[in-house]
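Example 3.2
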Amino acid sequence: MSGYLVRRALNAIPLLLIVTMAVFALTHLSGDPVAAIVGGGEVASNPELEARIRHDLGLDDPLPVQYLNWLKGVVQGDLGRSIQTHRPVRETLADRLPTTLQLALCAWAIGILISLPLGIIAAVRQNTWVDHGATVLALSGVAVPSFWMGLMFILVFGVWMGVLPPSGFVSVTDNPLKAAQYLVLPAITLGVHQTGSLTRQMRSAMVEVLNQDYVRTARAKGLVERSVVIRHGVRNAMLPVLTVLGLQAGALVGGTVVVEQVFAIPGMGRLALTAVLQHDIPVVQGFVLVATLAVVTANLVTDVMYGVLDPRIQHGR
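Structure, written as tokens:
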């Protein structure tokens, strides 16, 4: 197992390099950060000011040299400094990451609690109105834009009914009860969007498993249907579903941008959106690096869980 983990970690290095190079090039092509700092007119009228700022920020070097300098800093644990706030990017992301993780984990749990029961029920009642209704319900959550759903939740539960806070954030470590109240609406908004693919995957996996010979044998032995579905069906159907769960868990860390902006949550997603609008290149690069690491880590954990669910899988081979 240890050799497998090492190989997977080494295989992730080229992926990280490709992603960071692409983001590095695109952020530099999207606009001039110096103009964003002091204004385009002032830069054009004062070449000396422009040259001094570019030198201080390391923007006067060729683009490949800038990338290698940034990469060297990343290896040493230095993600650079924000162009706008002059604060180390590592500290900025460390402050925002716990907020995003709390939201992402709650949304992931909500998606699981909705999708898995829907998929199981749809498979057990295959080709009935229950099956069709569960499928339509799951896909409706994907079809509705998250920003619109979030605004409707704010309008109904935050403004009209006044039962939940319309925006803001409280950390779980500060006040767990109040934090749950602030997390309900954004977590549901983000979690509902995970239900479509997960429900369909769970349904198709369960339909295939329930038609296997060992399931028929279990039924022939007189086992209760609930026991057959849960003990023999769900566990074996979870292997393909686990792949989708892992992908969603990693993507949620970088996919909270819209929801955090709608609900005014001070997380990494909102920080990344502000950084993009301000051409704060080091912050954007740091955010993409963290999001990519989250996806890679989630995939690695998913592969390890395969062996837990199915001992026949040997990672050493």
